């Protein structure tokens, strides 16, 4: 029988959520082991948040500059595509994780490279890259942070078509002349924005009636309008029935419902995510392989007082910043419970041990052009949850700070107010640079700041944050 190597905590998965659990438990003095089969830093660092934003930053900077007199004429030409790719490659570390490994060593965490599987209660079996086997034992907790993967639907011809997923879309070194994007959510909007600006002729094919379906309707409408103005084709309400590539280096053809055929050089399937749980030993602890892992607000798996799941894998909020938030909470709870009977780790709402923001104050930013950012509930969600709510809208372009930011600024802001308590339930901002507005809204929503108190949060002039004053005025006037 293999002798287990003991640690206080074993973390399965080295993406941002897993790294933050390691950071918090090590800071509390617990011995911690991290198991990762790919690159430490995970999807976000190498194939999602970081490379996508590195691709998008020059796109958005050029778009903003073109709207400013005095500099617009100097940025009229195409992007320096090799330089954009070099910038992206720098931020991914050339798809090497040496820096992350150095950080783990600096905090005294132990790293195991290999495929980890649960092997019963408080046990993780690791198969190394050379086939070696090791068993790790956790005195206090095992944390699953294996993340999610892109879903490619099983359409006829799809396997031979070699479609892009978000990984290929953020790591490609060649601009396809024609790019078909299947999907309408964040990956679709951002990658359509990036690749259209980099030189592709982009066609977006969304099954739903609008882009960004989880945001207020105007968000997807403004993003689609801007993509069309940039030269992209955006089609909504269409269903893809097959994807075919007949020759290894030939074109890819997408067959729509009704028989229409569209041709491109690459096709990006931005069609959702699935949990990376199909081969991590869930069956050894009574869970179903391939499923999302359900957790309580304290990130513990019900019925397993030693097992936690953080990040995408628990399906509460598939966003890097929320996974890191959950990891901080789980790390604090594990440390408190490890301290003994006196360790208080009750998962009360808004406590240090509850992921309350996942459902109450979840922020998101989409780095399309225009940017779209939101926190909390949409109007439809608020009304569907039984709140007596009112949406207050304002033309973001009419705010002085926005007009100075860009000539002809187009954007919109909305706050959703709980009329009974007079606090914000949610807010949405769409427009160039609008993502920087969302944190103030997040504080207002998470803090349940009364409308009467928000009047005393005076926005600096002339900034786009002046939209807060205009929204409050609109709410006041609507109540007269």
Which short descriptors sum up this protein?
480 residues, alpha/beta, FAD/NAD(P)-binding domain, Enolase-like, domain 1, seven-stranded mixed β-sheet, five-stranded antiparallel β-sheet, 16 helices
Query: In which range does the helix fraction lie?
Result: 25-40%
Helical segment count: 16
Per the CATH scheme, the topology name of the largest domain is: FAD/NAD(P)-binding domain
- CATH architecture field of the largest domain: 3-Layer(bba) Sandwich
- What name goes with the CATH superfamily of the largest domain? FAD/NAD(P)-binding domain
Text of the CATH class of the largest domain: Alpha Beta
Low-confidence stretches: none
Gyration radius over CA = 24 Å
Q: Tell me the domain tally.
A: 3
Largest sheet, in brief, is: 7 strands, mixed
| First and last CA, distance | 77 Å
Beta-strand fraction estimate: 15-25%
**Overall strand count:** 21
Question: What is the averaged pLDDT score?
Answer: 96
Global morphology: globular
| Alpha-beta content class | alpha/beta
